[in-house]
Amino acid sequence: MPSSISLHSVSAIAYGFRYRAPLKHTCLFYAHQFQLQPQKFPNLPLFSSSLYRVPNHSFFTGNSLFSRMEHFWSGSSLNRNKGMIEQLQRYGVIKSQKVTEIMQTVDRGLFVPEGTPAYVDSPMSIGYNATISAPHMHAMCLELLEDRLQPGMHTLDVGSGTGYLTACFALMVGPQGRVVGVEHIPELVAWSIKNVEKSAAAPLLKEGSFSLHVGDGRKGWPEHAPYDAIHVGAAAADVPQDLIDQLKPGGRMVIPVGTYFQDLKVIDKNLDGSIRVRTETSVRYVPLTSREAQIKGM
């Protein structure tokens, strides 16, 4: 990532990075400070988790476009959830009607710590040095995996955290499918189960086509492999071989790869077992590591 960006170049401003967790000791600048109009720059992401480095600390602000707009959303949590999704659609993050329907059905407010701004497009801490991704990252991953989240398919979510995206996956594949979430923090698994039980995905959890487990996600979950779709919610230094082995021929994995500099990789397994890899975007996620290292913040 560059250490600075020219403030006079729209192309430089639009050169954004998508974040799951905030960078430390970094001066950040929000694109909306330029007062850019979305109709003039339809492809420019104006979200609090699309951050730009600048050399001048005076530009830093904690108020994002979404943070400010949330005050105008009123009514029930479902209305606020709907407002969040409409913003993601407005800026071209969500294009799929199916993804729209799923994100409208699963209220994000049920899956964040009490008292936190659930509908702001920003990652947030969920404890144990873990985060829940910004809504635009959830939307992106759902769209990247949509073709492998058809009814009846099998899905693995590594680092399932609060259970939000895992619940979305479960509704996508339906009762004939199978969704497994793996998280190595037992307290997060217990909390995620309670979250899901309050959501539209509760019947699938009760019926058994959807399950959440304590385990080392780097090893996958062989019991229900192979998987049509694998999502990894933390950055791996290298793609775990166990996950590649558990990916079905014709399946797809979305995984952030790297240490400080990270890319969101889309890994497709061809029918002959060969692998194709492409980079979707630059990202910043918490590391995919052991439970002990995560607790220590390493």
TrEMBL record:
What Gene Ontology molecular-function terms does this entry list?
protein-L-isoaspartate (D-aspartate) O-methyltransferase activity
Keywords recorded for this protein, A-Z: Methyltransferase, S-adenosyl-L-methionine, Transferase
* Family matches, as Pfam families: PCMT
Give the reaction(s) catalysed.
Answer: [protein]-L-isoaspartate + S-adenosyl-L-methionine = [protein]-L-isoaspartate alpha-methyl ester + S-adenosyl-L-homocysteine
**Record GO cellular component, one term:** cytoplasm
Which EC number(s) does UniProt give?
2.1.1.77
InterPro entries the UniProt entry points to? PCMT (IPR000682), SAM-dependent_MTases_sf (IPR029063)
The lineage's top-level taxon is Eukaryota
Name a single GO biological process: methylation
**What NCBIfam families does its record include?**
pimt
Q: Which family does it belong to?
A: Belongs to the methyltransferase superfamily. L-isoaspartyl/D-aspartyl protein methyltransferase family.
Q: What is this protein called?
A: Protein-L-isoaspartate O-methyltransferase
